[in-house]
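Checklist before submission:
- one chain only
- standard amino acids only
- sequence pasted in full

Submission:
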Amino acid sequence: MKIGFLVTTLNTIKEDLTTHDIAFAGLLRGHEIYFFTVFDFFSNENSIFGNVVNIPSEISTRVELAKKIKLLEKTKLDLKTLDCVFIRHKLEPSDRNYSYHKSAREYCFHLSLLGVKILNNPVYLPFFSSKLSYLSLPKEILPKKQLVTTNLNEALKFCKELKYEAVIKPISGKGGEDIYFTERKNLQNNLKSILKKSPVLIQSYIKNDGDKRILLLDGEPIGHYLRVAGEGEFLNNIHSGGKAKESKLTNSDKKIIDLIKPILKIYGMVFVGIDILGNTLSEINTENPGGTVRSEKFGKFNSREKIIDWIENHLK
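Returned file contents:
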């Protein structure tokens, strides 16, 4: 089977990426693994092509794959010959290369019409990758109060109604960027900073001992761990200094999963990461969910193998 991975860049120093983890699992199964970036697409009247790197079968570890991938020579490939493509890049409107990211998504849509399985569904991915996705989710699993607005005065009024016990963030943010607690002395400046780039999402603050990242495959949990904020911080995100710890799935977690599973399946969100604070769903990550390597440190989840199992079983 031919499996492709669409990424932003091949030049990364990170050796614990979920993308490389899944790719290496596919390589171990004997599949042909290809990587290409958003800059590598081209097309004509006959097909859609990419300048790709083919991962050698003799690669022996995920770390070796991560180190050598940027050194491999690219070759031309007719992308409709692929069986599956994983979309593993983040579409950011503020990115100066936004048009490349956008056209890459459009190419993926057209590849899906040619019979290539795209994970996740490129038609609905823009809607689920936005924090506005809460509009389609059951209210009982969401923060009690939240508001999305582009109006500064409306935002300030809502924060006051919440007695300044809230969190503000851009609807298109990632990795803990531009997320603030509503401290009154900095609130107006923080809101102005966010509103220059994006509508702002304001959520009632949820007291917690960390947030739980749960990886879902076709709506079923395949790995999880707890992210705990550093001393003196309130953000649990790993990219913001949070630490990963072992976790267990609670009945509340399972209820949340059961409630969102049908929605994820309807819209083709096969592999996602959800974040849970206490008994509340705080976010669904559908574009480039990570955590297979971290979760494996705290339990023999075999999440990367389960992802390859799913591909093999669904693309026979």
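Reviewer check: The first helix runs from residue 18 to 28.
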